[in-house]
Amino acid sequence: MTDKIYEYKDDQNWFVGKWRDFTNIYNLGGEKNFFQIEQELASLISGKQGFDVSVLRYSSDFRLMAFIIDMINEELDLHLEIKRYRGAIIITEGELLRLVHLPEQGLTLDDFFAQGAKQSLGDRILIATRNDGKTKEFRQMFKNLGLEVENLNDHPDLPEVEETGTTFEENARLKAETIAQLTGQMVLADDSGLKVDALGGLPGVWSARFSGPDADDEKNNAKLLHELAMVFEEKDRSAQFHTTLVVAAPGRESLVVEADWPGYIAFEAKGENGFGYDPLFLVGKTGRTAAQLTAEEKNAQSHRGLAVKKLMEVFPAWQQKQS
Known about the structure:
Blueprint: E1 5-9, E2 14-20, E3 24-27, H1 35-42, E4 50-57, H2 61-76, E5 80-85, E6 88-93, E7 96-101, H3 109-113, E8 124-127, H4 132-143, E9 148-151, H5 168-183, E10 186-196, H6 217-227, E11 238-248, E12 255-265, E13 281-283, H7 295-301, H8 303-322
Helix pairs in contact: 7-8
């Protein structure tokens, strides 16, 4: 038995736990009774000590159960996985289904078993990208919500969705909602770009093709410097990286979050990291470009990092409301 103290805390949930020789979930933040969850999870470790968890803030059975499953896996060296599935919560171990946790109101048989023979076990979200690096980031984030992640490389027959919108949200909606209708799945799409105040918000939604049909990062950066050649004061070269994320599913109202990363356009490119306009984007008043930041530094403050953080805060409530 270890002395390790486990803790999980976000805006809506706060749990503290310790491995002991008994099993208990004690609610310090309200009147909800967790006896059902306590007994269900205890059945997974019968005769192998137990978990003692204090609930200080609560909004989700899934988040509480995931916290305890992480404790069990670490203490007993197990490989349990927890997922959402058609309104229920399931726990698997390899190819074994170990536990099904139902909401208090139950589920109809049609809701739980509809098309069940045709789908793999576990709810999924499709990221509307072929970029495996971006997919890897989302996979880790959605794993904490019990969702499996795939991208467009898993659907080679899907057509390319033309980004004909005039705003970031329109383009992200086009991708997310079109692919959701074609696949019947939950889909996340993003549209991002650079907005330069002295250029009236350009390149904006045209960031990737700013320098023309044969645009690439080097040509786009060269054009941006040319367009700002007569803007001599750094304060007049203010800009923002922008990201809009849209989550769509058939028959549901789409979820939209946005974020900006303020900065300035440098007079010359600096840095070897990142991509796109990163070598020209001065981060606030730091004097460093986005291309001079480590991946960890960038993800902690970038437009995409901020947008994803916002998404993680509102996604569980959206998912529960729409299901």
